[in-house]
Amino acid sequence: MATVTLTVNGKSVTATVEPRTLLVQLLREQLALTGTHVGCDTSQCGACVVHVNGDSVKSCTMLAVQANGAQVTTIEGLATGDKLHPMQEAFRENHGLQCGFCTPGMVMSAVDFAKHHKSPTEQQIREWLEGNICRCTGYHNIVKAIKAGTEAMGRTA
Amino acid sequence: MYNFEYRQAQSVADAAKAVGADEEAKLLAGGMTLIPTLKQRLAKPSDLIDLGGIAELKGIKREGNAVVIGAMTRHVEVATSDVVKGAIPALSHLAEGIGDPQVRNRGTIGGSIANNDPAADYPAAVLGLNATVITNKRRIAADDFFKAMFETALAADEIVTAVSFPVPEKAGYAKFPNPASRYAVVGVLVARTGGAVRVAVTGAGPVVFRQKEMEAALGKSWSADAIAGVKQSAGGLNSDIHASAEYRAHLVTVMAKRAVAAAG
Ligand SMILES: Cc1cc2nc3c(=O)[nH]c(=O)nc-3n(C[C@H](O)[C@H](O)[C@H](O)COP(=O)(O)OP(=O)(O)OC[C@H]3O[C@@H](n4cnc5c(N)ncnc54)[C@H](O)[C@@H]3O)c2cc1C
Ligand code: FES
Ligand code: FES
After folding, report:
1. Does ligand 3 lie within 6 Å of residue A98's CB atom?
2. Min CA distance, A156 vs chain B (Å)?
């Protein structure tokens, strides 16, 4: 067993894990942060995307021990109380989801996108979503939501 | 996933000692290939030795007429580096086309070339740009590094520390990506460095290879037209659910022409 200490959504957490424990397992099973989803076992769907030290990563393809000492943000860490994060608000406004399974990963990926793109084109958004798969929406409203959310984040930054 | 012991290596020497002492131990870089492999129970290492904490393995620098990239440098860093964009834009373009943003945020150049997946992008850059692979023991020329499918010249306790890319006069990379993973169905890197032309093909065969007929044709005349008539033989090429050997052979010429056009 190994002991890891990391900051999750601003709070310091210490946990005992097996070396083979994935970051997503630590988040979901030990910390009960079940907003982060698992949609595949091939590292391709992006339902599990969280931020580690500010970068979007697939938490199903990272060991919890590799996140020792890191700053981790999950979907639960975006809103401020009852006030949704601008990207969450944009997904709601633009109907950027249907069943919602892919949504936490989409939103976390989109927030990282917004940090690198100030006035994005549709093409840039679609390319960025290479690692996020949605079975429901056909992506159209997700792309609209990310455009709106990115612009909103630019206004509040 | 089978269980294993995990340890952060303190230095390259420390990591080399750990993998040298135990043949069941494995190095862990970005984990973007190794962790999916472990999840499928396709490997059962006793120990994972994490290279993630070794600062000397990270970073990109210009050294004379070469760009030297540390083994633990992530794809995103190569894609966005001003040094790489300025000296070898084809290389930043290649890195930007690997997988997806989250794979690029973790995966490393050292892990990619050590793994030597037949459909990986970096082997085309290493071979096409005539790079030198630097390890904890020696310097290996690109022509001697990639041996066979998932097989390289690396010894069990040998660690890639950096890759040195000579700056070319012209270089371009074009790939036909697998629509799901972005791995290369066929990827071709063309380069002219110090007057010598190289054409490296990944994805098509069991291991990256040079297309010498195209090299000769481009050596005479650097233009997409010069290679339009060069046909790659389908013999020995990969055939799978994504593409037949014949289709891959056809794509080699198409991608090579596009790569020359991209190189300008
Ligand atoms: C969804 C998905 C899509 C992908 N798409 C592409 C793509 O389009 N093109 C592409 O090229 N790749 C693609 N990849 C693979 C990705 O680029 C990996 O990052 C890369 O193949 C391995 O790098 P890594 O740092 O993750 O290595 P790891 O997975 O950590 O290690 C891979 C192997 O290399 C060994 N190793 C690692 N570092 C060293 C070193 N310094 N010295 C010696 N041995 C070492 C390890 O022991 C292991 O055997 C994709 C991966 C995923 C999950
Ligand atoms: S669950 Fe992580 S990529 Fe699918
Ligand atoms: S909304 Fe159902 S998977 Fe995307």
Report:
1. yes
2. 24
